[in-house]
Fold:
Amino acid sequence: MIKRIIRILPLLLIMMVAFTSCKSAPEEAGSDETPVVTPAAPVEEPVVVPAEPNEEVPAVTFTEDEKNDLLGKVAAARTAAVAASADSIFPEEFAAVDAACAEALAAFEADGDAAALKEAAKDAIRMYKTLENAALAEAEFNRIVDLGFDADNPAAFDAACEMAENLRAMAADGASPAELLAASESLLGSYRGILDASFKKRADAQRQEYIAVEKQAKGIKAEVSRKADFAAAHQLCVDGDAAYACTSYEQALSTYRQATDKMTAIFTDVSQKRAGAQAAIDAARARAAAAEQVALEADEIAPLPEDAEGFEEPEDSEESTSSYELLGVQEDAE
Structure:
């Protein structure tokens, strides 16, 4: 399937050569007219020939700044294509556009045809952008396959692959740079649409997983015992919601995962500590119960004698003992 995309524009070189030959045709027509004019006024040739180019210069509305600005736009388009690895994925096509640009600039330096340079620059920008889109489309295609997203919507994936075939056919049939650019943009948009739909589906599921973990954490009062960490995890979920609202579904999925991982760690840590504390309490209670049981069994096996010292029962008396006597203080006689 990748082969469909790697050779999207096999005839771009032919198209650029044809474009260059079209630009050279007016020069041949001009050279045919020159011999006709020269013999008609042989004496005036030294005067008229230099004067005509000088008179045409003011009519050309193409300043040096305008030329530099135009060439800057071409250079920016080329840089973007290189950043997308278009020069390595489509080396022949990329070299063809470079050559066409150099030839158009050389022609302008020779004849000063600003209109021709402007048109050539527009087509070069379209070609570089088309190559950039094709390279990005291949990268997105590979991501879809590697992530298994092609199984989410097979019909949409097959339709996008068919668009790649159509783009290749358009290049082979000699479509214009503008047509190729539009087709490459549609292709790239199709692959990115598949990625967005799959990331959105997974972001929805990941957010539900976070909500479930947060509910468990609240059940053990983690928002109290780990207040700062709990708030940080919750903020990650809020950040994910913001990315989701901006249709940045891949970023939303990543942020939801971070939030889930952090909240899960909080829940696990607090649960373990609570379990440890409960285990200690249960062990203490078990020891106390065991000691009480041992005492009961010992009393049954070897009960204490009735006259055992330190275990005497208080003697009953008819007169109650005052609190002063219990404290060892003699009451004053009345």
Observations:
- Residues 249-301 form the longest helix (53 residues).
- The chain has a mean pLDDT of 80.
